[in-house]
Amino acid sequence: MKVILGHEVDIEHFSCSKLIIISRKGAFYSGWISFEFILNILSAYFYMWMATFYEDLDHNLTYLNIHIAFEILFVLGMVVKLITDFHLPGDTEPVRDPETVFYRYIKSWVFVLDLITVIPLT
């Protein structure tokens, strides 16, 4: 037993293997990638449209709501990438160990790019 934030936690019996890892070959991941592609095109179009035709974006409620929706969907995309398996070069079986999958994504340049896209600039 270990005390974490005032609660006793049994770390010896804690296992990450119960976490869901998404397969890159599955239907969900394929659908998510397609959805993310369309989302990127829509967000680029939306932001260009709003920047061109609207002057006061800070007080436009529609803009703010759509902007927040895009940000939430981009964060969900990060979560999907965080729990998606991967293949090592030369291996036929994907790596599905949650800890390895998490750290590989967090240490990758893709994570840095994803993080930059969700940092609020205004």
What can you see in these coordinates?
It is a single chain. This protein is mainly alpha-helical. It has one domain (17-118). The chain has helices at residues 27-53, 61-82, 98-106, 109-118, and strands at residues 2-4, 7-9. It has a two-stranded antiparallel ribbon. Strand 1 (2-4) and strand 2 (7-9) form a beta hairpin. The longest helix is centred in the N-terminal third of the chain and has 27 residues, at 27-53. The chain starts with a strand and ends with a helix. The mean pLDDT is 84.
Defining traits:
two-stranded antiparallel sheet; elongated; single chain; 122 residues
Rg measurement, Å:
19 Å
Shape: elongated
Instruction: Count all strands and give the number.
Output: 2
Number of helices: 4
How many domain regions? 1
Secondary-structure element string: EEHHHH
Mean pLDDT: 84
What's a quick, concise take on this entry?
This protein is mainly α and 122 residues long. It has helices at 27-53, 61-82, 98-106, 109-118; strands at 2-4, 7-9.
What topology emerges from the helices and strands here?
Layout: E1 2-4, E2 7-9, H1 27-53, H2 61-82, H3 98-106, H4 109-118
Antiparallel strand pairs: 1-2
Helix pairs in contact: 1-2, 2-4
